[in-house]
Amino acid sequence: MSTFEVDAKGMQCPGPIVEVFKTMNKAKPGDLINDEVTDFGFKVDIKVWCKKTCNELVSIAENGNVIKATLNKA
Length: 74
Fold this sequence. Notes:
Helix content is 32%, strand content 36%. By secondary structure, the chain is α+β, with helices and mostly antiparallel strands. The chain has a single domain, classed as TusA-like domain (Translation Initiation Factor IF3). Strands 1-2-4-3 form a 4-stranded mixed beta sheet, with helices on one face. 18% of the residues are buried.
């Protein structure tokens, strides 16, 4: 299992989701993707994206002005 880091801080929609998509294409099932984002619309977007793509949203949390999300590739 590998872990990927995505730094999408400072990007606005659709940038953070595009970066997640690119990283998911490199990942294998069971890999984790850790995202850091400052676009607060990402919280809703990533939940919908995970549901549509059957990937697991392991966790999502705010730390100041940064949203940290961990995804598990299905």
